[in-house]
Amino acid sequence: MTDMAASPSAEQQGEPEPAQEQEQGEPEFIDEYFRQKPKKHGRPWKVVDAPCLTTPVADTHAHLDMLRNPGLALARAGAHDVRFVEAMVDPLGDDGTSTFDDLEEWQRACQLYIRQMSTRICGQGWHAAPHVRIAVGVHPHVAKGWDADTAAQMERLLHDERVSALGEVGLDYHYDHSPRDIQRSVFAEQVHLAHTAGLPIVLHVREAFDDAFAIMEEAGFPDAGVLLHCYTSDAHEVCRWVEAGCYVAFGGAFTFKKLEGIRQAAELVPLDRLLLETDAPFMTPEPLRGTTCEPAHVIWTAQRLAEHLLPEADAEQREALLACTYRNAVGLLDREPTAWQRAHHA
Question: Please, which residues have CB within 8 angstroms of residue 316's CB and are 6 or more apart in sequence?
């Protein structure tokens, strides 16, 4: 997770302009939500044309409970054919486990928004609502709060068949919000829990790759899969994780102009283990930095990833690459409940 950026206010954005009419008489779908933050205060927020993808994409990492209106955010994602979202839950986080209680309400609100918008847009945008699964884990920032009660709560939450992964868990030596020895012990305990539950594990690693890899080697990489979330290191570091069979997810930082090392790292990830994410509400991709990130923003990273990995390819080949990232996401994170979950599900 990174620091949250402020989103444009209604006053800054201005009133939405009416949709342009196409030659065939159907209104063009212009998403007024995608606006670029002006360089100077007080200037208007310019509407930015969104990438027009012809294949579904997935957001494998979003903190829906941190968004102002999760239902609307899911509907906006559906407008751009984001068909799958993995929602993060941290029982020791500020919002606790509210996602479990609120998800059904968010999904109802999403369907309502979609029905309202579909009456105004003829056959363009506003696809079906994204399918949402949940990942549960104690983040290294709050690892110091781990105790026996937290461990028991984690196990109970993982019984829920909506849960498809354990995470995000790992080590963060950049902020050191929790002592490093505690981070390591809590991380190791959760890796063992992922083995017990038969679930994939979602890793958060920042400036701690050597220790994180050593813990994974000692505990064993779960057979269900390992997802290295929000990769922002270099090409050299990614190699050992790829060799260990890990999936690697790229978010908004992939689009940042100065972070060429991330793009070089993506070149080394096998296509069948390449994933996309947003880390919403953080890490908004270019050209929308300075606004609050939502699952819909994954389309910007998707476009940039396809352009970088296939610079000479045609649109069809790039869409095939993105279709593969979607299949990877669904294959890893939208599986049937595990035998352990079925045995313990109330």
Answer: none
